[in-house]
Structures are given as C-alpha cells and as structure tokens.
Specification:
Largest sheet: none
Radius of gyration: 29 Å
Number of strands: 0
Helix content: 55-70%
Distance between the termini: 118 Å
Oligomer: single chain
Order of helices and strands: HHHHHHHHHHHHH
Strand content: under 5%
Structural class: mainly alpha
Length: about 230
Amino acid sequence: MLRMMSKKMKMMGKMMQTGPSSSSGPSGTWIRTLPPQPYLSFCSESQNFSSLDEALSCFNGMLHMHLPPSIVDFNKLLTSITKMKDNSTVLSLSHQMDSFGIPRNLNILNILINSFCHLNRVDFGFSVLAKILRLGHRPNTATFNTLIWGLCSQGQIGEAIRSFDKMVCEGFQPDELTYETLIKRLYTSGPTLALIPLCWSIEKGILQVNVVAYSTIIDSLWKLEG
C-alpha cells in the first residue's frame, strides 16, 4: 500500500515539473494553439476613422500586437491618414514602422512620395524613388504620376516634362491622370508648343483624355496662333 502511494506521488511530481504535454488532453492543446487577442481588430475591417487620435490609437495597437498585422493593414491605415491630409503624421508613422522592422512595400513608399510632394518636398520624393529602386521594386504609374504632380505644383514644368519622357522611355505607360496633370499645368503656365505632341497622340488614338483636357489643349493652341 505504501509503495503504491509512493509511486503515485512520484508520478504527480513529474507531471507538475513538466506541465501538460501536447497529448495530455484538450486543455493542454487549447493553451498552446490559442491565437493572440485581436487587439483593435476593427482596424483591419474599417479604415473610416472618426479622428486622427482614433487612427493613431489603432496604429499603436497594431505595432504592439504579439503578431503584427500584415503590411496591407498598415497600408490601409496610412491611406486613411493621407485622406485626412496629415502628411507629417504619415511620415512619422512610417519612421516608427521602420524602427520596428516592419517592411514597407511599393504602396507604402508611394504614399510617402505623395506626402513629401504635398509638403512641397518633391526632392525627398525622388529620394524615396531611389529607395524603391534599391529595394528591387519596380515603380508603377502611380509613382511617376505623383512625382510629376509634385514637380508641376512647385512650378518645375521643365523637370516634370523630363520625368514624363523618362517614364515613357523606361516602358511605363502614362495614364489619363498623367496627361491631365501635364496639360493643366502647361496650360496655366501660358501657351506652349509642348502641348502639340500631346495633341498628335490624341489625334492618332494613342492617347485618350476627357473632353475637358482636350478642350484645354485646343484652347492653348488657339492662343499660340493668336
């Protein structure tokens, strides 16, 4: 009897030291496979924040989760703050992401370019473009559209046209927004012959723009004739 009780006590002691194994029953398995608490899970479900403070609270919660959300969720959050036109905050949060080792994909880098351009620092936007290339990403049309807009908004029309030419030479297909941005800025800067190649592209069907953009080109060319 005493020997049996001694054996049972030894077995209980071993179980207390090793803890429940993966095959020790439902409770042990549940503890090991329990996912982290979805802290502020609404962040990934809805990006319509009522205030900047709410967005920042969500961002901080995402940073300190045991398993950080995907880069797509950070992309959505930064896009939401961009819509609030708080570009300085976007840049600050991106820096925090970098310090936490969270990688930045092309979409987030494009957001940074947009923020720099809206802060009248298109030169920093081109620095981000250089980083995109160093990381092995391929810039897309949105990348160049934002930079062209930034140059035009700062009155650097010549540099915007050179960037446009580089964009075409490297095989990127300008879209309607690219042309509309150039047409608008070229028109507001005064009648210019630079609009003639665009007009030829429209006539040949290479370029499709809306009626407003086409009318802008025609009006500018009429002013050149006058």
